[in-house]
Predict the 3D structure of the following.
Amino acid sequence: MAKKGETPSLNDTGYRVYSQFEEDGVNSNSANLYFNFGWHGLFIDGNPKSIKRGIKLFNKHPHPWYYKSKFVCAKVTRENVHCYLPFTIPFGRCK
């Protein structure tokens, strides 16, 4: 664990990436991390076309050793962000 005033190590905090600013699940930092470094996770986008495009790409180029990523068409707000956090059980059950 990091001492006061020190930056904690990635082993202590975990690995998380959040992309934003006009990315579409295909041309994004998150897609790069999946395809090139084996990361996995949840892609959230409010545009159904972007979700469909991302699913199509990931299904066309599956990796035999990586976990399959999840795609959700939604707009994240401060009121519903908890619905998309990894520890939410059951996942995505909020409206």
